[in-house]
Amino acid sequence: MGPLLSDDKQTHLSHVILQALQGTSEGTLSGASTQALKEIKRILADSMKAEEQIHRAVRSRLLSYSRRIPEGSSEWDVLYEKTYREELRKRQLG
């Protein structure tokens, strides 16, 4: 599984997030917006990397079951969601 978002989409999303943050009264941006954009993009990349690792771990676990569960079946979907949530909790991400 490759990156979930292309570099162009990450850049665009970084700009959208920065604009949204600048439009709030929660805080103000000190310094150059380019640094903030880089940080937002880094966080997005880290999140996507974690998402991919979790996806691989969940698939691996489901495929290791002694009884084969057809991928795409409702049973697979339920087990995938349950295992996904467990993996998030294990990694303290959710």
Q: Helices and strands, in N-to-C order?
A: HHH
The fraction of residues assigned to DSSP E strands is under 5%
List low-confidence stretches.
Answer: none
Kindly state the number of beta strands. Answer: 0
Can you tell me the overall shape? elongated
* Structural class by secondary-structure content: mainly alpha
Level of helix content?
Answer: 55-70%
Based on CA atoms alone, the radius of gyration comes out at: 18 Å
Largest sheet geometry: none
- Give the integer mean of the pLDDT values: 89
Number of helices: 3
What's the domain count?
1
- The span between the termini is 22 Å
Describe the structure.
Helix 1 (7-22) packs across helix 2 and helix 2 (33-63) packs across helix 3 (74-90). The longest helix is centred in the middle third of the chain and has 31 residues, at 33-63. The radius of gyration is 18 Å and the shape is elongated. The model has no long low-confidence stretch (mean pLDDT 89). It is built from three helices and no strands. The protein has helices at residues 7-22, 33-63, 74-90.
